[in-house]
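Exercise 7.
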Amino acid sequence: MKLKLKWGKKQIIALVIAALVVFALVTGNRADDGGESGQSAGSLDNGAVVACDDFAAGSAKARSDATRLALADKVTASAAKSDNDAVRARAMELGRSADEGNAAWRTSANALTQACRDAGWTAP
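Solution. The predicted structure, written as tokens, is:
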């Protein structure tokens, strides 16, 4: 008996998002620096700057699920190199909302932009 496995677009997108989540969890788990809560704005380190700049540069062109997912992948990879918990968390949310529709995307995009600004980032 052969088992055929056919992957649809939604399954592939879900798999990519799951891989991003695992990647971010594996690379993003860093020791706390002395009792600070993860809810603070955090510092604007190089990883956060690159993530925020990447998002700002690509957000206007991200209109389809595929382009949103590609942008979220790029932003999440950059954010994973940051010690800024807020930017990392908002980047992950962006990836999860990439194929959830315009309203979910805008909400996540606004949250990421706000996390960037709270950390001291300004648009180029």
